[in-house]
Amino acid sequence: MKKRVFSGIKPSGSLHLGNYLGAIRNWVADQDKCENIFCVVDQHAITVDYEPAALRQNVRELVGLYLACGLDPAPCALFVQSHVPEHTELAWLFNCVTPMGWLQRMTQFKEKSDDLREQVSAGLFTYPTLMAADILLYQTEEVPVGDDQKQHVELARDIAQRFNHLFGETFVLPEPVIRKVAARVMGLDDPSKKMSKSTTSDSHGIGLLDPPALIRKKLSRATTDSQREIVFDRERPGVFNLLTIFQALSGQSQEEIEAHFAGKGYAQLKGDLADLVVATLEPIQARYREITSAPEQIDQILAQGVTRLRPLVEATMTRVRCAMGLR
Ligand code: AMP
Ligand code: TRP
Q: Has residue 188 been placed in a domain?
């Protein structure tokens, strides 16, 4: 039996190398071994300020990138979260079985609400119950994500366990699946912060659709340190981050990479890394242009995704509504 896998990305800005290495690339690598469901989580993107027109555009771009990166609509159901209204129905039911204390412990909420304080939306606070609904609705076994989402997937597991305890065996308990290499790609300008979509600095992240010259420029400016040796050392976060990206993209071992750069300088490291990033992204960008030139095909793939998932959605929701006394 193939394992059922679910994951998603927020359409909240341009995808970067962290999203690729921490998430999409791993989904693509395992898609033939699993039963896959990949979602564009548009309702998570509206928990913070946003522009409706930009959201619509970002959803299209993200689906185009899923396909351009190699997700195949034969082994994968691809869809947009808001096209399956049961996600929010189940999220409400989970809001009623999730203790406030569990949500107050979420580090992502603490970080994101720090600057906004009282202005923060209630949706940002209950974000993890919607994410739990995404995962549990499909009786998911594995959730491949970057390191930053581990706590949220563990909360989904806790909610499943609590629900099963209160209302009887209903949900499969999901597990996070996090790769060893590049599960947390850091910002090029500041290697103490994870690479993220929301930043004002123009040398922070590498966008999957960045042109080659821009990629080279950003990497040439990446923060390093005043030492010389090019070795994997976590105490030197700038160089460690560049080497980790190199490792993830080249598939070479740390020893091979250190031998390759022995006696060389940072300019060589940045130049070789730029070659590797450009060689990885160029074919993705070419496929992206091809795919997005036929938007009706994308709409068709998304509609098929919803149709394929319907029986699963209805089976879970019927059990849940009955178990909770709503039917
Ligand atoms: P998001 O951009 O927050 O919607 O994240 C989508 C996916 O990319 C999730 O699985 C994240 O864990 C992963 N991800 C986001 N940023 C990074 C990063 N800097 N390094 C590795 N994975 C990341
Ligand atoms: N919260 C995730 C992120 O920011 C996105 C997400 C929403 C997700 N629902 C999910 C990831 C379900 C995996 C499974 O990256």
A: no
